[in-house]
Write a structure and sequence with these properties.
This protein is α/β, with parallel strands linked by helices and about 170 residues long. About 40% of the residues lie in helices and about 20% in strands. The chain has one domain (about 20-165): Rossmann fold. The protein is built from 5 helices and 6 strands, in the order H-E-H-E-H-E-H-E-H-E-E. Strand 2, helix 3 and strand 3 form a beta-alpha-beta unit. The N and C termini lie far apart (about 60 Å).
């Protein structure tokens, strides 16, 4: 009988831990990479304008204090997040944009509350749609770089999505 009591206690602790993970409030900031230097390269660096935009991102979003940074595995996406990650003394984790649900699952399971995710004109709107479970956002025009999505999650559900220019 003593063993059964310990199993019940362990189950309750496990259950309350899993509920608290999904009950957390989270803020997920989604940003397309800044302007790229060369449109003929498959992995271009940021242009001078793109570098300035990446620095401006720190000022625009500083109050959010992200605790985790995710980027696709391209120079332009990493370099867009890098000034902010460096300021926060955080590393940038790589994610596969073709598997948005894996990223969402990792975010939802994480104890971290605030995230910055950089991606592409054809992946960031889709990630916002996947988080919101609605097809609201279309791919960005190739020349559009100044859009930020702020996704606020409460109790495991999207509470609201804000769109900011920068």
């Amino acid at each position: 009988m003593k063993c059964l009591g310990l199993i019940s206690i362990a189950f309750c602790i496990l259950l309350s831990a899993s509920v608290s993970v999904f009950a957390q409030k989270k803020t997920i900031i989604l940003v397309r990479h800044a302007e790229k230097a060369d449109s003929t390269s498959t992995d271009p660096e940021l242009s001078p304008e793109g570098k300035q935009r990446a620095e401006r991102l720190v000022k625009v979003l500083g109050k959010y204090e992200p605790g985790a940074f995710y980027s696709t595995d391209f120079k332009r996406t990493r370099d867009t997040a890098r000034p902010f990650a460096d300021k926060r003394k955080k590393t940038i984790e790589t994610y596969d944009a073709r598997k948005p649900n894996e990223l969402i699952e990792a975010i939802m399971k994480s104890k971290t509350k605030r995230f910055l995710i950089t991606g592409h004109s054809n992946t960031i709107p889709g990630l916002a749609n996947a988080l919101g479970k609605k097809d609201l956002f279309k791919n960005l025009d190739d020349s559009e770089y100044g859009v930020i999505w702020i996704v606020r999650i409460k109790n495991g559900q999207v509470d609201r999505i804000e769109i900011l220019p920068f």
